[in-house]
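Re: How this chain folds, sequence and tokenised backbone to follow

Filed under: protein folding, tokenised backbone structure, sequence and structure records.

Contents: The amino acid chain and a row of whole-number tokens, matched residue for residue.

Body of memo: The sequence and its backbone structure tokens, given next.
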Amino acid sequence: MENILERFVELGAVKKGHFLLSSGKHSDTYIQCAKIFEYPIEAEKIVGMLAEKLSGLKIDTVIGPAIGGITVAYELGRALGIRAIFAERENGIFTLRRGFEIKEKEKVLIAEDVITTGGSAKEVIELVRNLKGEIVGVASLVDRSKEKQIFDVPFFSLIKIELEIFNEEDCPLCKKGIPFIKPGSRQR
């Protein structure tokens, strides 16, 4: 796979329009990584490339925030030969359910599909730290963040995409009266 972004487009994971992102920001482009996971063999190849970037890390468990990080965490766990779990919101706060647990000093990687502000990943980092786990890094398929240092741990991504992101009050699409859609999973 020579051009990852091109493959994302071919799989229908890159959308154009007016979108309200989980972060509350607006954009004319949305990356819907769930479209990649419609094709398990493609997903295995794509996530496998991300796993290669993690090859020097000692990782016991990979955890993804529901919902976007679940399949990424699962595929990374498979590629790395380690346990994969997910955190989900309960009363608006990420928690472990379904019998999942993190032991003290367990080396944990946070997995996400797309990082824009890093909000969900940061919440899962806090959860893991509260459980006395050791964060070895954050890994995402797509990094569309604007900040240079978004996390206080190593951050790995398969691709970096520079896309326009707007605050609602500055959004040119809103000013044109173009209605937005909210394709993400987090409710604001």
The chain has a mean pLDDT of 92. Strands lie at 14-20, 26-31, 61-65, 83-90, 93-95, 107-115, 134-143, 155-160, 165-166. The first helix runs from residue 4 to 10. The domain at 34-161 is CATH 3.40.50.2020 (Rossmann fold).
